[in-house]
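Query structure, 395 tokens:
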């Protein structure tokens, strides 16, 4: 296993393609006080929804070991044991899937280069297109509707399931494999065959907002797609470079997670130290703290939606509870249970539920999500820019 890490990521995105949210390395406060949880050489993942049951680690490990000794698949045996346990967020990865996990944390993945989002009427639309990726080369644009993936209808399916189909998670698809999409633009639907590729993402983008984009005090939009390595520092640098008097619109819509330490670094850009979140492992309590010295005076609005998950929810909860930001959009996904991975016989990795995390005010995000201060459906960004302007943050 790698050095101590703590993971968070939605189950629907996990098998090979997940942007897992990781409490990477040791937490400074915990390391200083000696309060890291027992077994901190293992990873910890935070997941969504209430925990009805938890698989027993020894039972799962024994099942894998017996299967390997009998010449059978340890991964399949472990999956069966987790399934019987009722641990809805427990999961088992083979070695290839776990390697994909690690690569995703570095901001790379195998896919077609598009991000999916849910429309107001429940359809699945293209949210972003990776420049130069397979989808972009095929002429797919943001706003196009995805109607089928490899002949399967995807209307009203969870976005995480659609992403898993696009990346071929369940079939173990690699770069070079093909996927067939039914894409609708206006009244016209066409069939497009794409060849998956290994893509590298830029998790943070920065631009000016509103009609006064050229004005020195125009608001700055910081769009964080995921908390991969370096994203927290990218947010901090964007805040430091923002013009004097400019407010910040932090767009976390569709952010499915990433490294927790990166989310804490991002929180540190806006907070002068203090609590970011608490979490428990087997009932033992721990805390995450922001670094001192953040910009606490600049107006800040955070945009969220149902695709805002895990690390993005952790950051949102901290900024909302601490009174640092106005949150705008729709209720977040709601992912707050904790899984701890461990290596099994045969090389697979099992992640089993062990606890939960909470916001600074003690709110449990698990299965509930975070309600924004201002609930807005269509036109959320425009409304957020208006709110930011009212706070004195430019336009």
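Result returned for the query:
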């Amino acid at each position: 296993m790698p050095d101590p890490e703590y993971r968070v990521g939605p189950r629907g995105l996990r098998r090979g393609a997940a942007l897992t949210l990781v409490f990477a390395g040791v937490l400074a406060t915990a390391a200083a006080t000696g309060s890291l949880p027992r077994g901190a050489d293992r990873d910890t993942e935070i997941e969504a929804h209430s925990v009805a049951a938890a698989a027993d680690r020894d039972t799962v490990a024994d099942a894998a070991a017996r299967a390997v000794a009998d010449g059978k698949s340890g991964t399949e045996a472990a999956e069966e044991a987790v399934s019987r346990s009722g641990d809805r967020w427990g999961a088992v990865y083979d070695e290839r899937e776990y390697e994909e996990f690690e690569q995703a944390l570095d901001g790379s993945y195998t896919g077609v280069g598009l991000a999916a989002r849910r429309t107001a009427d429940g359809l699945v639309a293209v949210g972003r297109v990776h420049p130069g990726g397979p989808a972009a080369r095929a002429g797919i644009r943001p706003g196009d509707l995805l109607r089928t993936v490899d002949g399967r209808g995807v209307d009203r399916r969870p976005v995480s399931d659609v992403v898993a189909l696009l990346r071929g998670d369940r079939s173990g698809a690699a770069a070079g494999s093909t996927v067939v999409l039914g894409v609708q633009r206006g009244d016209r639907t066409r069939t497009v065959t794409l060849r998956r590729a290994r893509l590298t993402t830029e998790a943070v983008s920065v631009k000016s907002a509103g009609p006064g984009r050229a004005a020195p005090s125009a608001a700055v939009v910081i769009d964080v797609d995921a908390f991969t390595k370096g994203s927290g520092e990218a947010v901090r640098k964007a805040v430091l470079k923002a013009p004097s008097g400019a407010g910040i619109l932090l767009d976390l819509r569709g952010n499915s997670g990433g490294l927790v330490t990166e989310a804490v670094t991002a929180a540190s850009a806006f907070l002068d130290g203090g609590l970011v979140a608490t979490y428990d492992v087997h009932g033992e309590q721990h805390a995450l703290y922001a670094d001192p010295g953040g910009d606490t005076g600049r107006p800040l609005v955070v945009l969220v939606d149902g695709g805002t998950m895990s690390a993005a929810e952790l950051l949102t909860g901290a900024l909302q509870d601490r009174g640092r930001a106005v949150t705008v959009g729709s209720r977040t996904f709601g992912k707050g249970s904790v899984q701890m991975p461990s290596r099994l016989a045969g090389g697979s990795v099992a992640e089993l539920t062990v606890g939960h995390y909470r916001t600074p005010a003690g709110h449990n995000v698990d299965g509930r999500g975070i309600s924004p201060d201002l609930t807005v459906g269509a036109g959320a960004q425009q409304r957020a820019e208006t709110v930011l302007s009212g706070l004195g943050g430019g336009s």
